[in-house]
Specification:
single chain, 9 strands, six-stranded parallel β-sheet, 248 residues, Rossmann fold, globular, alpha/beta
Length: 248
């Protein structure tokens, strides 16, 4: 039953949790509970030295839903896939139930996100090189996207893209160098939402992560004819893909 499931949304770098609002509302109308995570690495007073605070914040939301007896579907976008993947350790439904805890994670949904193995980082996934559209501070502690209207929002109107860009905040750059020690997609059923018009993580890279990195782990796939930000340009279709994952 949808009422027994909480869908928790994790944004990517630079983005507030509210970017998921439209998708969450569609799923609430379908009877699901929803929860949005604001990552500590987005616009902090002092930039983080690693992604651990992000991991702990995701875990805090999962534990709260699990302790309430809810099945949890974790939905992550872009960079958010790293702390989400790491956060799964020990919080899947089967493991928690063996400890007498009523709820836990039952499914992961990666929306044009990073699926990488243990020992790897976001920067490592790009061969150890910064992307050309990264604007990195001199102290290597924060970064910001150059031209987000083209990189993230290329299927949106100029007005909507400007509105979305205005919501972005500087992100803690060192989180991009944090290495996974736990690959949650190996232990929990997962779905990947391909975004065909993505200029940030091109579709060829998305498919490589699913078909090569996660080969043999039975990752379901959904496909949207969307940019890197389907939560704004295609919220209804994104919600429907997430609902199918939750019900799979």
């Amino acid at each position: 039953m949808a009422s027994n499931t909480t869908i928790i949304f994790v944004p990517g770098a630079w983005h507030p949790a509210s970017c998921w609002d439209k998708v969450a509302k569609h799923l609430e109308q379908a009877g699901f509970n929803t929860d949005l995570v604001d990552l500590p690495s987005v616009g902090p007073p002092e930039h983080l030295k690693g992604f651990e605070p992000d991991v702990e914040e995701v875990r805090r939301h999962v534990i709260a839903a699990g302790d309430a007896g809810q099945k949890v579907v974790l939905v992550c976008h872009s960079y958010g896939g790293l702390p989400t993947t790491q956060s799964v350790e020990g919080l899947d439904l089967k493991t928690r139930q063996t400890r007498g805890q009523p709820g836990g994670i039952v499914h992961l949904v990666y929306c044009c996100s990073f699926v990488i193995p243990e020992g790897e980082s976001l920067i490592g996934a790009f061969g150890g090189n910064d992307l050309p559209w990264f604007i990195i501070s001199d102290d290597k502690m924060q970064y910001f996207p150059n031209g987000p209207e083209t990189v993230f929002y290329n299927d949106m109107s100029e007005e909507d893209a400007k509105s979305a860009t205005a919501m972005l905040k500087p992100h803690s750059y060192q989180t991009a160098h944090s290495r996974l020690t736990y690959a949650g997609w190996k232990h929990v059923p997962s779905t990947y939402i391909y975004c065909l018009k993505d200029n940030a993580i091109p579709i060829v890279v998305q498919k490589m992560m699913v078909e090569q990195t996660a080969k043999g782990y039975g990752v379901r796939t959904e496909t949207l004819d969307a940019s890197h930000s389907p939560f704004w340009s295609m919220p209804k279709e994104t919600a429907e893909a997430i609902q199918r994952a939750a019900e799979s």
